[in-house]
Amino acid sequence: MPLVTTKEMFEKSMKEHYAIGAFNINNMEFIQAITEAANEVKSPVILQVSSSAIKYAGIKYLMKMVEAAVESTDIPIALHLDHGPDFETCKMCIDAGFTSVMIDGSKYDFEENIAITKKVVDYAHSKGVVVEAELGKLAGIEDDVNVAASDAMYTDPDQAEEFVRRTGCDSLAIAIGTSHGAYKFKGEAKLRFDILAKIKEKLPNTPIVLHGASSVIPRLVDMCNENGGNIPGAKGCPNEMLKQAGENGVSKINVDTDLRLAMTAQVRRVFNEEPSVFDPRKYLGEARKEIKATVADKIENVFCSANKA
Questions:
Q1: CA neighbours closer than 13 Å in the CB half-sphere of residue 45
Q2: Which domains, ranges and CATH numbers included, belong to the chain?
Q3: 23-38 pLDDT, tens per residue?
Q4: 197-234 burial, b for 16+ CB within 10 Å, e for fewer?
Q5: Of 137, 147, 150, 263, which residue is the least packed, with the fewest Cβ within 10 Å?
Q6: What is the chain's alpha carbon radius of gyration, rounded to the nearest angstrom?
Q7: Is 82 an active-site residue?
Q8: CB count in 10 Å sphere of residue 86
C-alpha cells in the first residue's frame, strides 16, 4: 500500500489504548530493520526523519529508500518530519511526499508558537498532510534540539486545549517528564501521568505524542562500554512507564536513542571481537539485526501495536 497519514492509525490507537512507535531513520539499515520488524508482527509504523538526517542522507535518497520499504511490506507506513524547525523545512518535506510533519515551535512564546503552527497547518492540510505540534519544553540534546534542564517546562492542560483549538493541529507533543538523548533522569524516573490525564480530559479526540521516550536499553549501553565506548550513567524511560503511557492515551511514542545504541553497540562489538573485519556488510549487517530486534520488542511488549495493522 502507499504511504499513509497518521490519521486512521491514531484513531484506532485511541479507541484500543495502545501506542504506535515512531522510529527515526538515517540510512538504509535503519529503514530496513524498522519496516521488516513491523511487517513481521503486523504493526503500523511511523518512519520519522529529522532535519539533521535530511542534511546527512539527502531527502531524495531517503524518499527512494522509504518507497522501496513500502513496496516490500504490507502494513500502514507514515513518513514524518521530526522536529521541523521552521515553515520552509515543513514545506520542503510536504512537497517531497511526506505524509506527516512536525513543526516544533516550543522554543517560542505561546502566541508565536500558535502563529507558526497555524501557518504550517494551513499549508499541510491543503496538501492532505497532517501536522504534529509541540507545547511545553523537553530537556535534553538530540540533533538540533538542545534544551537545558533549567529551561524544561511541563505542558499546561488549559493551554493545550486552547493551542489545539486555535491551530487546528492534528496531534500534540507534550512534556510530562521525558527528555531527549541518553541521559534522561537522575535518580528515579518519573513521568507526570496526572498531567497526561488532564490533557486527555480536555482533548479526548486529539492524539498525544511523547518525545524523548527511548528506554536507553542497559544491555546496549553495557555492550557499547565493554567494547571501547564511553557512555557512563545513561538512563532512559522504563518500559513499564512507556506501556502505561500508551494505555492511558498516548498515541505516538518516539524512539531514536535506542536505535543509535543498537547500531553502535554491534559495530563496536564486531570491531573489538574481529579486528580484521573491514567489509561494512559484516558490521552493518549485525547492526541491522540488533535494530530490528529492538524495534520488534518495543512493538510487541511496550507499545502493544502488534497485529493492529
A1: 33
A2: 7-303 (3.20.20.70)
A3: 999 999 999 999 999 9
A4: ebbbebbeebbbbbbbbbbbbeebbebbeebebebeeb
A5: 150
A6: 18
A7: yes
A8: 15
